[in-house]
Design goal:
12 strands; single chain; Rossmann fold; 10 helices; 2 domains; six-stranded parallel sheet; alpha/beta
Length: about 325
């Protein structure tokens, strides 16, 4: 049987792309990654305003042209027009799988995969416990091996820290960052532990400088945003994990490891994210309140189950 061809389509955000790649890899596929960008006014009005054909796409977008893939996996508002475009011009031969709530009628897609907190229901909907992700034992082992030489001088236990940034729902300014950094430093001193920290693009340079200063007197490794992100290495090597609450993706990935996970609160919130937080509470995942201790919970990982359901629904079984 000839291997299925597949595309992953997003606007290029790392968290979005990771979700799509995780599903494609769980399906045993080697997808072509397509990053799309929309022009004004479609950029602001998608997915509700879709007239305009190819004029919607900016010149910096990757080409969407034949040969069309057997399967398209997409997520994010800007990917929706691409999914509909490919579905139309492939004359329905491309199966479209949209991750997260597409905000338009579900009938436009062959399958929609969305977290429970999105509250979507329909015959073509599969619900997940958290965000889909790429985290696998193999990926964590590889990341750990690459990062390990950077940490040989640091004492264990390792407290892995994933820091996001301000977004539409949460605030992470200088005051919030300072409080978090000081709490982490105090925790590291009390445990005689090391902090291994990765910020995100949303953290910001000023927050990064504050973080570097606050951690200067405790053993630590702080990614400086150059070279490859040690994100998976941190997930693989950490004995404890502390993750800011602003990113459902980061929390879901950390929660899939089964390692003691503590979610750091930030000011703000939304009804949708609060529903996800309630799921974490029900699972037994704890809030970060300045102290860490070993504990166990059921990992938030149903990727293989989701992949099997996708294979069944889209008749992808060999």
């Amino acid at each position: 049987m000839r291997p299925l061809s597949s595309w992953v389509v997003t606007d290029g955000k790392a968290g979005m792309e990771s979700q799509c790649l995780g599903l494609a890899e769980a399906l045993g596929l080697d997808p072509v990654v397509k990053r799309v960008r929309l022009r004004t006014p479609w950029r602001q009005l998608t997915p509700y305003f879709r007239m305009g054909g190819h004029l919607q796409f900016a010149g910096s977008s990757d080409a969407l042209a034949p040969p069309w893939p057997n399967l398209l996996i997409a997520t994010g508002r800007h990917s929706i027009v691409a999914s509909l475009w490919v579905k139309k011009w492939s004359r329905g031969r491309t199966w479209t799988v949209q991750l997260q709530n597409p905000a338009i009628a579900l009938k436009h897609f062959d399958l929609v995969i969305a977290p429970e907190h999105d509250r979507l229901h329909g015959e073509n909907v599969i619900s997940t416990r958290g965000a889909l992700h790429r985290v696998t034992p193999k990926l964590l082992r590889g990341g750990a091996e690459r990062l390990k030489p950077e940490l040989v001088h640091l004492p264990r236990p390792y407290i892995g820290v994933l820091i996001g940034g301000a977004n539409a729902a949460y605030r992470l300014g200088a005051d919030e960052l300072a409080a978090l950094a000081n709490g982490l430093a105090a925790c590291a001193r009390a445990m005689e532990a090391s902090l291994i920290v990765t910020p995100s693009r949303r953290t910001g340079q000023e927050n990064l400088r504050l973080l570097k200063s606050a951690l200067s007197r405790v053993p630590h490794y702080l990614w400086d945003m150059t070279g490859d992100n040690p994100y998976f290495g941190i997930l693989g090597l950490a004995d404890f994990l502390v993750v800011t609450c602003d990113s459902v993706n980061m929390v879901s990935e950390a929660a899939s490891t089964g390692k003691p996970l503590y979610v750091a609160d930030l000011p703000g919130g939304s009804a949708k994210v609060e529903r996800f937080r309630r799921l974490l509470n029900e699972t037994g995942i704890r809030r970060f309140a300045g102290t860490l201790a070993p504990y166990s919970y059921s990992p938030l990982d149903n990727m293989q189950m989701i992949a099997e359901r996708v294979k069944t629904r889209l008749s992808l079984r060999p």
